[in-house]
Amino acid sequence: MPTPKDALKDDSQLRQKTMIADHFTRLSRAPDTGEKCVYTYVPGNLTELLRAFGTLPVLPEINALQSGMRGKSRDFIALAEKTGHSEDVCAYVKSDIGMQAAGNVGPTGERLPKPDLLLLSYTGCFTFLKWFELLREQYQCPTVMLHVPYQGEGAITASMRKYVVDQIKEKLIPALEQVTGRAYDEDLLKEHLARSAKAEDDLVAVLESAKHVPSPIDSWFGGVYYIGPIFTAFRGTQDAVEYYRMLRAEVEERVRLGKGPVTPDGDLERERYRVVVEGPPPWTHFRELWKMFADEGAVVVASTYTKVGGVYDFGFRHDPSRPLETLADYCMGCYTNLNLPTRVDMIARYVREYSADGFLINSVKSCKSFSAGQLMILREVEKRTGRPGGFIESDLVDPRYFSAANVKNRLESYFQMIEQKRTGVGVA
Amino acid sequence: MKYVVGIDLGSTTTKAVVLDEGGRALGRGITNSRSNYDLACQVALTEALIHARFSFVAQAMEERGVPPERARGLLGDLERLFRREQYRGQVDVLERTTAEVVGRFGVEDARRGVAHIVAAMRGESDALYAKGASRKSDFFRDLAGSRWHALAEEEARRGGGDFDVLVAVFDKAILEVENTPWAEGTFERFVRAALADAAGAAGADAAALAGGVDRAVSLALEQWSSVGTGYGRARLPFPKERIRSEILCHGLGAHAMFPQTRTVLDIGGQDTKAIQVDEHGIVTSFQMNDRCAAGCGRYLGYIADEMNLGLHELGPLAQKSERSVRINSTCTVFAGAELRERLSLGEKREDILSGLHRAIILRAMSLLARSGGVHDEFTFTGGVARNPAAVDALKALVAENYGALTMNISSESIYTGALGAALFALRDAKGRTSAPVAGEVAA
Amino acid sequence: MSALTDLLDRAERVYRDWRFTTVKEWKARTGGLAVGYMPVWVPREVLHAQGVLPVGVMGAGDDLEIIRGDAYYQSYICHIPRSTIELALNGSLDCLDGMLFPATCDVIRNLSGIWKLTFADKLVRYYDTPQDFDPARGGAFVRKDLEELSEDLARRGARPLTAAALRRSVEAYNENRRLVRGLYDLRRDAPWKVPTYELYVLLRAGMVLPVEESSAMLASYRAAVEADTSRRPMDQARVVLSGSFCEQPPLGLLKTLERSGCYIVDDDLAQVHRWIRSDVPLEGDPLDALVAASLHDAIPHPTRWSEGEKKGEDLVERVRRSRAGGVLFAAPSFCDPALLDQPMAVAAIERAGIPWTAFKYAENGGQFQVIREQAGTFADSIKLWSAA
Predict the structure, then answer these.
(1) pLDDT greater than 70 at residue A141
(2) What does R_g of chain A's alpha carbons equal in angstroms?
(3) What are phi and psi of A117, to 5 degrees?
(4) Residues C66/C87, Cβ–Cβ less than 8 Å
(5) What is the tens place of the pLDDT at every residue in C281-295?
(6) How far is B305 from chain A (nearest CA, A)?
(7) Domain that holds residue A129
(8) CA-based max dimension of chain C
(9) Rounded to the nearest 5°, which phi and psi values hold at B274?
(10) Which chain C residues are within 8 Å of A282, Cβ to Cβ?
(11) Do C113 and A341 lie within an 8 Å CB cutoff?
């Protein structure tokens, strides 16, 4: 999701960079070209549908995390807190509100367009509701609430699916027709969905390449780049299909050459620890944390964060033959829409299937959808896998919640603990 | 002889533990110098080696048949006099640096006052280290600081200079005093001077004592390996492979002190750690507090400041409580406000303090629960383990929640991390394939 | 007078009893099931109709020392889930056959998952209240959800749900809600007669006792305070207390606010009694009626999507209706819904020229001095402002 900088220099990443740059340029010109812009969220994003109506998606979480990576979130958050937001609440919201107050200049330095529609896809996060209420106050534009039911019982029922489909059919599609002046074209939507499925196949192959020892990729630090296009504005586009084909080929080549993952300092020489990570990264200290892992030879072989915009590795694919139902299933299947027992199953499965030495939780202060219950997850996954769990705390984009000394201390202790356990004798 | 050293660079003090090739503890040292990490390590190591050398004096006397009780007395005298020499040596450095500071900052009016204070301090050194005299601290900064303060007040009253200027001179100078390393041969100079004064009282054992000192002085100590750990370990002058996490060091150190240990709780100034170890001292899981310092030693520091008490006075005062007040927040930011509100409501100081100690221990209990609970035996380490009210609260809560089990607290618990580090150093020195060594250490 | 004191003593005892003694007694007496619930959107009528006792579990207030609960939560999570877990682990909730977690926020939602993992043998349901208010969409969805809940209860030995029984339950809760509304109206008109902390302990007791008993209690209280001529008006500022809908403030805080010179004339406390605003119709299918009420007659709320309404206008309206001089925003620390709602509500009441002040609390917070000063100053300024 971040803009790949010098960290990843493969062709696929250069291509992604171009895709993103083009998209933001198009967004900045939208007020002149008349293209309609829809603000929506990563979890439960309905990009194929938006694209089928010719609208351009804007994702406020991505802008917020970019602000974090670019070192701007501290000031944006301060701006939002000055206007009455509490220190206690989600920093993504505050970073976004602050960015808009400061002129709505996006990650590429170009101004972002005002929303023509707010699509509140209310998936796996209650704060989304408040966030778009705040934006609605500001922009006074049409807003569609798409209530995506939570998988409280660990499954999608017919009633849940019908609820989502009916909302798409009866609320969202008419709203998009109204905003764009275009009629709903289901065939066009199906074409997008077919392309999504193709890209999803390649994405899964990339993510599962980490089952190799040594792993050719890092599924968290690297993973957030890999999920970029498919989690944001590009799912269902030809650009995305080609990006994932390229990425897959590159990763397969790394496997063939026996190469380890890319790190901020080049290819990792020796894989010492394989871990699964639960939770989002601290964007303000992304590279610093990545280096802490790389310095220890730690590779993230699977992560839950790379599933927030869709869980594809257990078989789900967008299915053009049932276009609205497949969109509903997609929304309900996103990681943060899963209940805790399902999350525990998933992490335990990753630990086993990716031959991990253990799993680490990065608990972020902002996101209670992730963090409330993580200590329970820690306990349960340890119990089920017999592998040690590690726990670090930080925030998404509020730099005040990152203590490098504290995080480093816990990480080093965690990796040394694995090492000590592995060598067994230690100091007996 | 070869030795290995473990150094634990904490947030308030730096500790060193020295072991011989067989893993036998030779000595330990501590300093509160924080101005310079390299130097803090050096000072702690120097102190540990002094301690080690004194252990050879003791050994020599034992070999010569000096009765143990008598040998301990003689050694105590020798060490006390050695510390006096050390103090005087540091006063000499203080004299030099304060004079230099006076010149550098052009506060010539203070020169005479400074000279008077230094002279008075030197004059007091005999009394300060007289037999049976008690000292407020073992650290030069504390000892000299409190004397300087008192003498500067007197001096100012007598018109010997401005009090604030005199104190400022000391504050500038003390850093440099701490940063002045020991010159070659210093141990010998001090110990021989101490021996000269101690020999008279040694009577028939004077020869044995002198022999011991000869052995200690002539001992060639060669560093074989070292490992650093602790809060400031990233700043230690050690290569990365010689740095170990404090969690691992604490686990192993606690295991070496109490081999049956399964759970370790360490409450230090900056953080609290709950650690589970297996029968070999290998860490199996751990939890630490987050960036919030609530429930750490630092919190007690705030409370002590707020109540105008010394840190060591808090525990005993809290133990006088008959009716503990329930305190729900251990937030350091609100500590002062909560305290004042309680006092204004008419609650007794000891009752509030008792509640505060319990609140801190409750935070530790939640970390223990997160790390996997409390298992027999349970070892409590860190600065807060020296606080009797904290120990009482912990004992009660552990018994309530985990049943009766053995709780270990060592008077040497402040050295737990450094001991663990020293054991890692020994393992590194012996190579990874060698036989276990911790068993030998326990001796 | 002494009857009133006895009544309030009993209510406060029930409210403070985190061991839920009355629930255990009720179960022993009736042999029925008891199911706990968290704030706000609880379909108590459905439980009642199946012979199940709905039991409000609003954390443990300031009476319980948290020993195990903190092991489940980081420092940046609110307090209510810690004390709720503590209650479960110390055995206080053993008398409950299940727990219901209505959709209010991510913390409570995830708590339902912790419950599923920890208490696998109990009925644990997340109750996903609809954010789409169309009867054919949101209505159909929530009706199905309620039917599933009802079937779950029946599988555990509760009576099957019948229309007749549900109608009777709706009637019982309509009656209870009328009494609660009546007391809110009385407090609005004569706040010196109905101190908030008294009303509050009655509402809290009503979340634990059977509804019929709660109604009797509310009616006796009303009769007693109306007859009591010793309660005289004082020169206090009228305020609306906003934001305390989930984790509840300690009773000491409510007392502090009133003692500092405020009359609380409207609030967000114990909303389970008031989230349906008027009587649920008794005609037609009662489940449909209940569903319709939850779609169209529910209160505006920070955890509920506000279709087409302007944020904060409902608060302005409440201030006007209750003739309040200002708003006290009191949100629990780390409560995302309340704290993110606040700037929008503040904007609305500022547009309307209404004074306000804000503070945060925790259910077990013991420091009221700062709040006392803040609320006292606020009350004085309102009085000055309205006199000017």
Answers:
(1) yes
(2) 21
(3) -155, 140
(4) no
(5) 999 999 999 999 999
(6) 26
(7) 11-182
(8) 64
(9) -115, 125
(10) none
(11) yes
Report the interhelical angle of C251-259 vs C196-206 (nearest 10°).
Answer: 160
**pLDDT band for position C119 (cuts 50, 70, 90):** very high
Mean pLDDT computed over A33-58 = 97
Delimit the domains of chain C by residue range: 20-161
What pLDDT does residue B330 have?
Answer: 63
| A425 burial type by CB count under 10 A (0-12 exposed, 13-18 middle, 19+ buried) | middle
Q: Do residues B421 and B45 touch, judged by C-beta distance below 8 A? A: no
Alpha-carbon distance of C181 to C186, in angstroms, equals 9
Q: In the prediction, which pLDDT does A4 show?
A: 43
Quick one: pLDDT at residue B186?
87
- Which chains share 3+ C-beta pairs under 8 angstroms with C? A, B
Pair type for strands B272-277 and B263-267? antiparallel
Task: Could you list the beta-strand ranges (E) of A354-397.
Answer: 358-364, 389-394
Indicate which CATH number applies to the domain containing B342. Answer: 3.30.420.40
Whats the size of chain B, residue-wise? 443
Give SS3 for A356: coil
pLDDT in tens, A381-418: 999 999 999 999 999 999 999 989 889 989 999 999 99
Task: Convert the pLDDT of each residue in C183-208 to its tens digit.
Answer: 999 999 999 999 999 999 999 999 99
Containing C242, the helix (H) or strand (E) segment is strand C237-242
Tell me if A305 is assigned to some domain: no
pTM: 0.90
Q: What totals of helices (H) and strands (E) does chain A contain, helices first?
A: 18, 10
Domain ranges, residue B324: 259-409
Closest by CA to B76, choosing from B192, B187, B202, is B202
Q: Do C369 and B337 touch (CB under 8 A)?
A: yes
Using a CB-CB cut-off of 8 Å, the residues of chain A touching B437 are: 427
Residue pLDDT, tens place only, A303-346 = 999 999 999 999 999 999 999 999 999 999 999 999 999 999 99
Tell me the C-alpha distance between C322 and C187, whole Å: 9
Q: Which of C82, C333, C367 to mutate to test the interface with B (most CBs of B within 10 A)?
A: C367
Measured between alpha carbons, how far is B167 from B161 in angstroms, rounded to an integer? Answer: 10
Q: Which of A417-426, C15-24, C307-316 has the lowest mean pLDDT?
A: A417-426
Stronger pLDDT, B309 or A120, i.e. the higher one: A120
Contact B381, B250 (CB under 8 A): yes
DSSP-derived letter for residue C297 is S
Measured between beta carbons, the chain A residues lying within 8 angstroms of B370 are: 375, 378, 391
In a domain, A331, yes or no: no
Could you tell me which chains touch chain A, where touching means 3 or more CB pairs under 8 A? B, C
A108 belongs to a structural domain: yes
Nearest residue, CB atoms, C107 vs list A93, A159, A372: A372
Q: Rounded to an integer, what distance in angstroms lies between the CA atom of residue A406 and that of residue B11? A: 13
Helix (H, G, I), strand (E, B) or coil at B261: coil
Query: To probe the interface with C, which of A126, A138, A170 has the most C CB atoms within 10 Å?
Result: A126
User: Would you say residue A78 lies in a domain?
Assistant: yes
Give ipTM to 2 decimals: 0.96
How many domains would you assign to chain B? Answer: 1
Length of chain A: 428
Residue-by-residue DSSP string for B45-67: HHHHHHHHHHHHHHHHHHHTT--
Per DSSP, B300 falls in state: H
The total number of structural domains in chain A stands at 1
User: What does CATH list as the number for C20-161?
Assistant: 3.40.50.11890
Residue B126, both tokens: 């005999």
Q: What stretches in chain B show pLDDT beneath 50?
A: 432-443
Q: Give percent of chain B above pLDDT 70.
A: 93
- Higher per-residue confidence, C151 vs B35: C151
Transcribe B213-227 into DSSP letters. HHHHHH---EEEEEE
Looking up residue A86, the CATH number of its domain turns out to be 3.40.50.11890
**What pLDDT was estimated at residue B441?**
35
